[in-house]
From TrEMBL:
This is Carboxypeptidase SOL1 isoform X1. InterPro entries: CarboxyPept-like_regulatory, CARBOXYPEPT_ZN_1, CARBOXYPEPT_ZN_2, Peptidase_M14, Peptidase_M14_domain. Belongs to the peptidase M14 family. Gene3D superfamilies: Carboxypeptidase-like, regulatory domain (2.60.40.1120), Zn peptidases (3.40.630.10). GO terms for molecular function: metallocarboxypeptidase activity; zinc ion binding.
Amino acid sequence: MELCSLRFAFVLALLLYPCFAAARGGDRRPISLLGQMDDEGWMLSRHLLEDQPLITDEMVSGYMSNSELEMAIKEFGRRCSNISRVYSIGKSVNSVPLWVMEISDKPGKDEAAPSFKFIGNVHGDEPVGRELLIRLANWLCDNYMKDSLAMMIVKHVHLHILPTMNPDGFALRRRGNANNVDLNRDFPDQFYPLNDRLESRQPETRAIMNWVKERRFTASASLHGGALVANYPWDGSQDTRKEYVACPDDKTFRYMANVYSHSHYNMSLSKEFEGGITNGAFWYPIYGGMQDWNYIHGGCFELTLEISDVKWPKSIELPILWEYNRLSMLNLVASLLKAGIHGRILSSQGGHPLPAAVKVEGIDYTVFATRTLGDYHRLLAPRESYEVVASMPGFQSKRTRVVVEDEVTSLDFILIPEGEDSVKQDEILNNYICSCGGKDKLELVEFLRGTHFEIYLFIFIVVVFLFYLLKRKKMF
Ligand SMILES: *[C@@H]1O[C@H](CO)[C@@H](O)[C@H](O)[C@H]1NC(C)=O
Ligand SMILES: *[C@@H]1O[C@H](CO)[C@@H](O)[C@H](O)[C@H]1NC(C)=O
Ligand SMILES: [Zn+2]
């Protein structure tokens, strides 16, 4: 009886939640539901309590309108055509295209490289992100030949930039979209099954969901305003309480959030948030947010970045905000090349790519290799040792221990089909992989991947042929 009424209260609380909670990046907490809200809580959220007050024409001046932003994106695409591609992932409620700029030396090509995405202007009245993202794209275009960080990103990452997810909200100068829905409350939620009505999802949300499912992003960040902090999962708590709720990759997320806050002009000096970072639910729980959905359903490690205390600052401050955030943005993208393990997973028979699962002992999370190239990208906090397992139905799993330093570690797996008498082959490979240091491991990778691959394949065919002859002889 008591349990039943408790459950009822919880469901009721969730139902009422959207009425009270406005957003990550500018919100109101469900104060009446959170009995433990204290003075300190009020202090911490002071910038987030209100929607941006009346936005005057004067405040809007100096910001790009939606059509100016579209022109700027297309102009970027023309000017930087050899390292970029412009495409749309859908339309807003009012039919404004959601333009994305992809930056890479091979834009639009399928490569064994990690992808990162930036999303700005999730909330219509938080426009700093959209301005900084177009600056980021242009800066990369201007500097990829001379700046080593820019060069590294263009060469080794596919960076996708969506300056505005909510152009209608921007035009209306308010937080929600044209239907006045808070897009950072519109995603399916792990604790909030009431949010699972697919058909009622907003077009902007659906566009993001399809985009994430179709393209494998290794990590991402969305940009908000109203505070100065790097926020990481989980955003929600089971019981709507304000408490630290660690996700399986807590350590890695804290590493990423620290990369951002410590590369920032003064985010890490925050008096409100230790080190300028926070666990979402510890700050204030939200449900239906984009961040947790990305990690759970997209295999994508997403941060929610609050990049200015004032949601809609005067446009004259934009160049300074860009300077404060530039290195943070670049370093966060480059962290894909500095933390964790990556490689390819191939079948021992013919060397074809396998969409295998990669798990790390002690972390309840799976990263999958791609179907097309068999590449996987697994972010991990550096300076630790990890036990990594690659598995695939029909193949023998393979397990390796690696020490991840301040450089992404290359780790390829050659999986052997189950039920084959492959002990000998296994032995050879294991000797190669285990008895020697990382360098030799890489040589094996190069051997299998590089020009010797044909030789490897040739030997394999010869062996199969001999086997066939032997069998034939036996038959007669
Ligand atoms: C892009 O074009 C410039 C000159 O127009 C050239 O120097 C550069 O190598 C090109 N970059 C790529 C990645 O092809
Ligand atoms: C960071 O610098 C800005 C601009 O100087 C200032 O307004 C803000 O209070 C500073 N924040 C912190 C946490 O030091
Ligand atoms: Zn926001």
